[in-house]
Design brief:
Elements lengths: L5 H9 L2 E3 L16 H21 L2 H4 L2 E6 L2 E7 H25 L18
Parallel strand pairs: 1-2
Antiparallel strand pairs: 2-3
Helix pairs in contact: 1-2, 1-4
């Protein structure tokens, strides 16, 4: 999920809404990532497209509403800039979950905001 989340910024700029469970089934947005390379490629592509989308948009466009739908029903609607902020905060939440997973599997936790117990380079 973390690898794909940067692409959400592009989606929120380019589209007016997203349905998590569209009527008739089948999400219209998603990625099938099976390998570490797939994950890293998706992350790099998502960050690159998000940067380009942000550089190519306007403040006026970011003030327009964006909607999150489930089965055709609006569950959240806010200006795009707020939804993008929420997506970035959501990414931070999942990144925190990932550090717990790493720790539980005896994988050194990288520094995030400064040194971690495993990375004292600062």
């Amino acid at each position: 999920m973390i690898a794909g989340m940067p692409s959400w910024v592009t989606m929120m700029i380019d589209r007016d809404d997203f349905d998590l469970n569209p009527p008739g089934g089948g999400s219209s947005f998603g990625q099938d990532m099976q390998t570490t390379k797939d994950l890293l490629d998706a992350l790099d592509k998502g960050v690159e497209s998000a940067r380009a989308a942000l550089a190519g948009t306007t403040e006026e466009h970011l003030l327009k509403p964006w909607r999150l739908l489930v089965a055709g029903n609006v569950v959240q609607e806010k200006p795009r800039h707020e939804m993008i902020r929420d997506a970035i905060n959501h990414l931070s939440h999942h990144r925190g979950q990932l550090t717990v997973y790493l720790r539980l599997n005896d994988i050194p936790v990288p520094s995030i905001y400064g040194p971690s117990a495993d990375d004292q380079r600062f």
